[in-house]
Predict the structure of Alkanesulfonate monooxygenase.
Amino acid sequence: MTDVSKPIDFLWFIPTAGDGTYLGGTELNRAPDHRYLREIATAVDRLGYSGVLLPTGVSCEESFVTAAALAPFTEKLKFLVAIRPGTASPAYYARLAAALDRVSEGRLLLNIVVGGSPAELAGDGIFQAHDERYAHAEEFFQVWEDLVTTGHADLDGKHIKAKDARLGFPTVQQPRPPLYFGGSSDAGIDFFAGRADKYLTWGEPPQQVEEKIKAVRAAAARKGREVSFGIRLHFIVRETDEEAWAAADKLISKLDDDTIAKAQAHFATGSDSVGQKRMAALHNGRRDKLEVSPNLWAGIGLVRSGAGTALVGSPKTVAARLREYQELGIETVIGSGYPHLEEAYRVAELLFPELGIGVQEQRTSFGSEFGGKRVFGGGGHSTLKSVAAS
């Protein structure tokens, strides 16, 4: 059981497919401009997030390139980027990983993404069936890990062949950067149990997450391994529960039923992901029953693939819900919110104190001064008044 008194490891999300104020609409959208992504990265680095997830797919900016572009503007932030077996050779991904870990001075995390959309995979030249992709991934990472940890690999496998493969430079992190993985199928869990370090689940109700953690932990134990767990969630945190639920309603206020129906049909026919099916089953495309567990809201999944749930409420409410997940074994959270820049500030300023996560020194710049307190007056001359401490 996880120690809930220990602050949870909290990462944020870099929206490399775009960002916006409303889901399913065309108003107030933001393109994934590098300067905007840089604003988010530098903000979360300063606010106390430990890292950022960069998604992968044809609609996203390439994660390795984007992370390399953002790393020089940050100091402590770790970058969770995707390795997709089959889109390049394991030797090439080993060189990418070593280079990014070196230029970021040891701040690389790697997210194994085996698939999800057969159509997208076909565009990348990958035509294996669902479970066969994991057999391919096992051989892929056998070569990749040998290269990263020893600098050399050989394999004459069914899917992967490597003859005297070499890696010229080691990673900063030894023996290799941490490997994350998210997948809900039996084949995915079996692959993870023998290979990766941290298992990521999407934000399902606590009972479902508990069942999944037990299954994953047992699979890892059968292979003599211990693993850790994380959860991918959106957040809508406001000063009161009422304000938070109003913000959730506003987020989908531009979303019409036709857009929902088209999105759900696309997810159903265009993906063979077990996790995606589990997300869709939480709401079944209905916008009238979106609170699928106390304060767990499935409105985002009406039109967004992948992680489709948000914790909604005041800081105390959301912190209590997160502690329930911690008690099940969750140690890491990968959060997001729309728009990602503003919501990164809200989560840090409102929720982090409740979670015991320390925020950087700039938050105390309006604090005590010679035993007094400073009151923010909105700018101008002499509008910050020093008052006696109570």
